[in-house]
Each structure stands twice: as C-alpha cells, then as structure tokens.
C-alpha cells in the first residue's frame, strides 16, 4: 500500500464532511478559525512522515496536550500519579464537577480536565513547569524548534479560566492539587495553547506506536506503560464519545477542541488529523470521518 | 410568663445535652473552642433583652452572617437579587457543587454557600464591602461598637478557602459572580469570621420580629419582605436539617457552625442560642434542644 | 371580618388568573377537565364552612391524599413510620429516583411519590387497604358518604403506572416496601383517584387547624403531632416549590396535580382551593394566587 | 507456542490468587459456590479447544449473556436497536437508575442492566423468547445440547428481581420497554441463569474472533459488526472497571458475577476463564489475573 495514495483516497472519501460541524467558540481566539481546512499526516516507525491537505498549518493543541503531560509524568517508570487519578471512563462532561464530589476529589481519568490538572500539578512538581516540558518534548520529537505557545490563545483562555480554576480549587480542597492553584492553571492553559501542525503532531506521537521509544532511540516508556496509555486513550480519549470512537474507528485516539486528533496504530504508525469543525461532543467531524476511512481502508482497527 | 424564669427552665431541661456534639474542626481556630459552654438570649420588641448562661461570651457568627447579607441586599426595596438565586431548599450539602451544575449556576437559595457568595457579590456591588456593611449593621442594632471580625478565624478560613474559591469561580463561569472572585471570597470569609455574643445577636435579629423595623425605628424591610425572609429561614436556614428543625422547633431559624442559632417568633421576640457542639448536619445540639424546649414551654411554634 | 365577603374579595382579586396554567395531561382522564373553573372553601373550628365559585364541584384529589395517609399512619401515636421515611425537602422532582439511590432507599419525605408509597405500604399493613381507609376518613370528616374514587381516573392512572411501579420495586429492593408491590401501587393509585370538592376537602383538613381533633371531637393526633405535620406540609407540601409557596403564602399547604390545594391556618381555619390550570412545578396557578391574597387580606401568614 | 503449555504456565503464575475475592452473595444459589475453583479454555479459529483446571465445571453465565443477546439482536444486519441504547461507558454502577433519569430512559450501553433489558425486550420482539434464543445459540456453537438454564438460580434471581423490575418499569415509563415488563424481566433472569463451562463458553464466543462466522461457517455478523461488538466489550464489558481491564489485559472482554469472563483476541482465539471470587467491582479476581498473564505471555494485547 502506498501511503500517499491512501491518504489521498481518505481525503477524497471524506470531502463532503470537510467544513461540517461547529468551530469551538468558548474563547474568541478559537472562534475565528476558518472551518474549511483539513489536514492529515501519518508517521511511520522509521521516522518518515506522509501528509496531505493542510497538514503543515498550525492549530491549537488543546486537550491533546493531556496525552503528553501524562506520558511525561509516567516517564522514568514513575507510577506515583495513579493514587491521585483513576483510569475509568467518566460518563460525564469533560469539565463536570459532579463526579469529583461523589468520588472525593479523585478524577476518573487523566483526560478529563480535572484529571489533567492533577497530572499537570504532579509534573510541575517534578520538572518545574509542565507547559515548558511539553513544548521541549514536542520540539524534540518533531525536530522543529519553532513549535510554540500561541500567546493570543493563552491570553484568551486565561481570561475564561473560571471553570478550570473552580476544578483546581475543588481538587485542592481534597488536597489533590499540591502546588499554587493559579500557577497550576496557568501552566495547564499554556500547554493547551500550544500551536502545532499535523506533521509535527504525528511525529510527536510516534513513541506510542514504537512501544515507548523516542525519535532518538532512547526509551521514554516501557512497552507495558505504552500499551496502558493506549488503553486509556481508547477508553477515555475522546470526551463522552469514547465508546462511539472505539466503535467507529477502533484505534486509541486523543482529541482536542482545536479540531485535532492524534491516533495510534500500535507497531505500525501514528496518525494526526485536523479539521476545526466539531460535533456536539467536541470531536472533529472531518477528523473522525477520516480516521474511520483510514481504518476501513487499511484494516488496522485493533478489533 | 417571666422570661428570666423561662430561660432558666429551658437551660435546666437541656442540661444533659450541653457539651454534646462535635466542635467544628475544619479550621484550627474553631476546633479549640471549649464545647461545655451554652448561652441563650431573648430580645423583645421593646428593645429589652434577657439572657442566661454564657450569653455574653462571643462566638463565631459563621453562616448566620448569610441572614444579614440577605437582609441588607433586600433593603430599600431592592429585589434585584432574585434572578441570581432561588428560594428552594437544596436537598444537598451546604457546600455542594452538584446542584449548581445541574441548574446552570443559579444557587437554590441564599443560605447555601453558593447562594451566599452571590448575595455577598451583589451587596459588595452596592456598598463596596459586604463584611463592613454587616459589621456596621450588627454594631448599630446591638448598640455595641466593640463587635468585630476575629482576625485569627478570618486568617484560618482564608487559608482553607479552596472549596469557597471553587464555588465562586464556578459561579463566575456562569457569570453569576461579577466582582473579582478572590475579593468576593475575602469579604465572605470576613463576614463569617465576625465574633458576637447571644445578647448582641438577639438584638441584631430583632428587626425580623418587628416586621422590618430597626432599633432606631427606621424601616429596613417592608412587612412583606420580612415575612419572606422568615419563610426562607424556615425552609432553608439549617442546612440539610431544615425539615427536622421546622418539625421539632417550628420557628424560622438560621444556624452557623460556630454553634450559634438565631430564631424568630414573628411579632414576639428574637432568640439567640449558642453551644459549640454540633450534630452531624452542622447544627448546635444544645441550641436546637433549647429552642425545642422554648417553643414547647411558650407554645410559640408558628404551626 | 365576614368570611363570605372575604372570599368574594379574594375571587375578585385573582379573576385574571382563573383559567391560567396548563391542565395535567399525563393521563387522559385529567386532561379533559375545563380549566376555567375555580372554587374556594374555608372551614372554621366550629365546623361551619364557607365557600364560593365552583366549591361544590368535585376534582381529583391526587397528591393531597398523601397528607391523609400520613395522618392516618401517625394516628394512635404510631411514630414507627419515621425510620422508613425522612422529613427533609428533596430538591428533586416529585417522582425522581436519583435521591433514593444516593440515600439507600429512604425517601426524603412523605410527600414525594417514593415517600408516599412507603406510607401507603405502612398503612396497608395496619388497616388492610390504605385507599379505603382514606375514603372512610374523608367521608366521616365531611359528613358526606358520597365521596368516592373516580374509576375512570383510577383506570387511567393504573395504565400509566410504570414510574410508580419503578419507584416501588426500587424501594422493595432496599426492603422499604414490605407488601406486594403491585398491590401497594394499586392502593396508591386509588387513593390519588378520589374525587372531592372544596367544601368536603376543607372539612376533611380541619383536624390540622384544631390541633388534632376530628369532627366528632375524638382525638386523631396529639397537638405535637399536628404541628409536625403542618411543618412537613410547609417545607415539603408543594413539590419543588415549597420555598416559593412559603415565601408567597406563608401557610402549611399540600397541593395535587388535579389543581387542588389544602392549606392550614393553625388554630383558625382550613382552606381548600381548586383551579385545574397548573404552573410548571405542578401547583394550581389560581389556587396559589388565591391563597396569597387570602393571607394578605387576613394577615394570617405564620411568619 | 504450545497452547496447553501456555495455559499450564498461566495457571501456575496466578495460583496464589485462586480462591481470592468474594463470591457473589446477592442470591443464595450463587453464594454457595466453592471459591477455590478455577478454569480456563481457549478456542482457536479451526474449532479446536484447549483447557485446564476446572474448565468443564459449569458456572452461572450471568452478565456474559448480555453479549449473546446483543449479538443475536444485531444478526441479519439489524441495527434497529441503536436508537434505544447507547454505546458509551457509563461511569455508574451496573444497576444504577441515576443515569437513566438524566438521559431520559436511554441506557448508556447494552452491558449495564438497563441496556441489557432493552436488548432483551428487542430480541423478544423478534424471536419470541430471548432466553431460549440464547440457549439455542450456545448449544449450537458449543455442539452441546446439554447446556441449560439452572432452575435454582433462576428461581433465586426471580425472587430478588426488584431492582431489575424497577429498571424495566422505569424504561417502560419512557416507552423504552415495549413488551410486558414482568415477562421481559423473566426472560432476562433466565438468560442470566444459564449454566455453562469454560470449554463451551470459549466455543460460543469464537464467532467474535472469526469476524462474525459461526461454527458451521454461516455468517452471523458482518466483520464491521463484529469489530464493533468487540469495541463495546472493551469500553463497557467489565462494569465500572472497563478502563482498568483495558489497561491490564488489553482485550475486549465481558464478565459476569458468576465469576466467568469471555475475552476475544481478534483473528486469533476466544478465551473463557472462571473463578468465583470477585473483586469489589464484580469481576473475577483469578480470571482477570489469568487474562493479564495470558496477554503478557502471548503479547496479544490489542494495544
């Protein structure tokens, strides 16, 4: 199978859905994005990367950053995050406080906002600044020092951070945020505001397809840890649509409201897609459609 | 009926319960209070006040302050607070966030923490500093300029304010806190930290028994507004035990975790009781028992 | 004050609201009622009764029956129902199952459907058939042997009983229904389907204004028990609008979706109103307005 | 790899955990099972089956039956069940009513009790008796006409069916059970009470590893449907521990409180394990441990 031909086929098949959905509008900086864009990139274990469409156009990383903070928190065989956050799907909205209250401040998983705040707090305790740590990792894996935080998005997020501040103070009331709350939220906001394109994102996620090995061949995670992150992605990676995503796409994936999705085919490749129009659960309409076609054409669903 | 004899009888009848219950321990400054204290005071419409026991010993006002911020917010016929807070019992703990989420940021009533934060925010918008406004009112009604905030309690509360900061940021995310969140919480904490004794509290609550008239004869609330505050006290004034309190005592009342309760017999008197030991719902064990005896002996239940 | 003149004044004042609201339509038999009807009756401690409008037109008792099953369950100083049902407002819809699950099968109060099913089950265990027991009581107090169950309404309710069957089986799973579930629900449905008019309802509720004495002078409840039922009515008697009702009307009251409300002025009178149009919380629009005017004109609010 | 040696290795490795956990005790018939039993069987695409331990000892199928009713409901390309039941993990207990109420009677997935009752109701509408249909299927796939319902377990379940009757009546109140409620619950109870051993269960689940083909080579489900059932198993198949199961085992699996688990390695094999001792989320302690070892030794995790 020629990967470039395959990606061209995928884009052709989903053409009618490009531009569908609604661009995230909770902050002005995201609401201005042109919805009629679409990009896809596939990174292979040898480090090569193929792409088509708007695959070199940067978009806002948003919740996909949660995947990288989790991986960084687990690196060097550090499993100490687990008493502070669960691994179960939540059945509630990504920014709900209800579950937290019923379960005494332990978020259900690392990919809802509450869980990600706990992971950011933990990582900050290890490395100092979680957002800088994510940036360094992305730049190294994509071999692109230009990747950076979008200051407009970060400022816009910071001005609309009441829900995340509420979550973080609530977690702190259960002693599950240990750092200074505004500082943890600031790092969380900056990691979400990183701008990246499909090419770089696919390369940055390749370690999950390579059983934990980074670009330079060094080991970031053990094969067991890598499998486990993939499992958490599959069960919890796409907000309240993880079941639907598993059902349609059949791959571990993590989405963000910037319209990006990073998916993993263990042992074979990582795939980054981007389309700004979202469905009502916050996942890219064109992105999910493209991954659906991708697994149909390759038969690379894990099921 | 001689009021002094009556109060002596009440204290004698509840003697076995003085010292029962558990002193609030969520902040160190409250946890140190000696539980074996008890005071009761009754203020009559003519401005006279009777008391017995530790009725001149100051205690922490805590949630009883919510009653005064509400009355001050409603004064001068200002009913503009109501679209921002309901008047229904909550069925949830006083500091729960669950209901807020299901009802889009409108607290069920002014006497749960979320509702009180909204009232404080509103009052701050009118008078500048809600805590100072409460202090001024208490001093005037009790004719005691010594009433003041307990700085140790305030500092202790401020150091444990994560739950209230979470509530306030959450409300702000629904645009239902309009002031600066940390500033609103600071005022809320200071109004809760006011130290007052039974004598002064009974006098300060007398306007509710006098259909809205203050000590100096000026009108604070209309008779209709006064009845309505009494109705909210009866249905919502004692946390998740309002039904039980209505059932046993049969009077409008507002309790605080400092162990105080202010109750109202419309047209007849206001009653302040204090006993630091709390039942599991946060109401003073000896205080509720004393009010129960008081209405039994006087037959002044509203039912 | 002349009571007939007073009632004429009340009706004149609320004229514009007669016919407002929406008739209950969850069963066909109720949906056919003409909304432009209104009646009011007041029963005095001497047994006399005054009324105006459609005060002799029968309507469906519905949830007001819960008040009579509770009183019958408590008669002869039997307080054994309380471990099985609470006395707190619920903060949830009258037929919600959520609270039951979080509180292990103990309904919050006797006036939500779950609580009423428990009371019916208890009463059935004492007297055999709870609905027959309510009928006997109503007939005796109103001195009207014609009062009866409306078989069309009962049949219609029975055909739409899935929600109540769900509640009852759920309670049974916590061992809080002891009788046969379909039989308990059948009795509950029949007590709700009783047809009664304002005159008879006011007379039937007079024992609550007479500190527990029945028409024939015999004691049904102690004065303390009577006060306590009045307290439960005030805090829990009008679905999720108990706070609002206390705030506007200031009397203990119990409403039903047939459009009736029974209110009590302790020591003075019982008042029955009826208007089929309901507000969105299930209380009669004209009925609440009439009681609001009644307490304004008489100054008989308990607050 | 020799499968018999592999299974012997698995059993040896988990030996210390056999007998751990607590036998289900909500019905007497299950509470009597000896916890110190363990069996495992693997069925290969060629129809051969390997096993060790108590692999021919029958146990109660319980919730694993939900997998077979779902597959039967989807057979012949019938996707009409999906508007009536979701495909998302629930985040609540398997028999919770809370989510149903917030989502208007649409169960989150087919593997919680509410969802399974809807599937049973649907299947009953197609085939007459859902439990008989499951029995026929199991007998055919396992080539064992002796498989049958355990009448003691069925009677015991029927006597403790209040929670399921509550769920079913609640669903019926949303028009999401269309058949007679007690009859649907009866069929549900009988399908759960089927007794089966590991050998027969592994054979019965082989169609999920064979992309939808039955023992006789006929097509039951399309490859796409089969993948989708596997996806639902992975995200929802092990109660509130689906994330943990995905994380540890990395295979689609469906568990039951009888102590059985059926897992699928797409394209390779089906695995049935049985150990009656359950963890606090209702999954077999020894069974999960065995599957964990199985994927570790084979490297057949899907991730």
From TrEMBL, chains A, B, C, D:
Q: Where on this chain does substrate bind? A: 63, 113, 157, 164, 188, 239, 257
The first-level EC class reads hydrolase
What EC number is given for this enzyme?
Answer: 3.5.1.2
What is the reaction catalyzed? L-glutamine + H2O = L-glutamate + NH4(+)
Where on the tree of life does the source sit, at the highest rank?
Bacteria
Alphabetical keyword list: Acetylation, Hydrolase
A GO molecular function assigned to this protein is: glutaminase activity
GO BP field: glutamate biosynthetic process; L-glutamine catabolic process
Q: Which Pfam families match?
A: Glutaminase
Question: What InterPro entries has UniProt attached to this entry?
Answer: Beta-lactam/transpept-like, Glutaminase
What NCBIfam families would the database entry show? Answer: Gln_ase, PRK00971.1-1, PRK00971.1-2
Listed under subunit, the entry gives: Homotetramer.
As for family, the record states: Belongs to the glutaminase family.
Q: What protein is this chain from?
A: Glutaminase
Give the source species.
Flexivirga oryzae
| Protein encoded by which gene | glsA
């Amino acid at each position: 199978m020629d990967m470039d031909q395959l990606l061209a086929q995928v884009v052709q098949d989903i053409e009618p859905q490009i531009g569908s959905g609604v661009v995230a509008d909770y902050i002005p900086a995201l609401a201005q994005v042109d919805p009629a864009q679409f990009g896809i990139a596939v990174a292979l274990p040898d480090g090569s990367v193929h792409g088509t469409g708007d695959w070199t156009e940067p978009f806002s990383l948003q919740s996909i950053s949660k995947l990288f903070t989790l991986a960084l928190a687990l690196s060097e065989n550090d499993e100490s995050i687990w008493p502070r956050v669960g691994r179960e799907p939540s059945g509630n909205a990504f920014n709900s406080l209800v579950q937290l209250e019923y379960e005494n401040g332990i978020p259900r998983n690392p990919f809802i906002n509450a869980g990600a705040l706990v992971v950011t707090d933990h990582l900050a305790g290890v490395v100092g600044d979680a957002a800088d740590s994510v940036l360094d990792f992305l730049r190294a894996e994509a071999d692109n020092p230009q990747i950076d935080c979008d200051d407009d998005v970060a400022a816009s997020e910071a001005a609309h951070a009441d829900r995340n501040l509420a979550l973080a103070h609530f977690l702190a009331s259960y002693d599950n945020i240990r750092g200074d709350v505004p500082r943890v939220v600031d790092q969380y906001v900056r990691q979400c505001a990183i701008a990246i394109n499909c090419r770089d994102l696919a390369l940055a996620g390749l370690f999950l397809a390579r059983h934990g090995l980074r670009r330079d061949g060094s080991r970031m995670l053990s094969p067991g840890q890598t499998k486990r992150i993939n499992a958490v992605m599959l069960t919890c990676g796409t907000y309240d649509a993880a079941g639907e995503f598993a059902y349609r796409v059949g791959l571990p994936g993590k989405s963000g409201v910037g319209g990006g999705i990073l998916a993993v085919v263990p042992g074979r490749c990582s795939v980054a897609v981007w389309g700004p129009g979202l469905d009502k659960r916050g996942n890219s309409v064109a992105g999910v459609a493209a991954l659906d076609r991708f697994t149909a054409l390759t038969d690379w669903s894990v099921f």
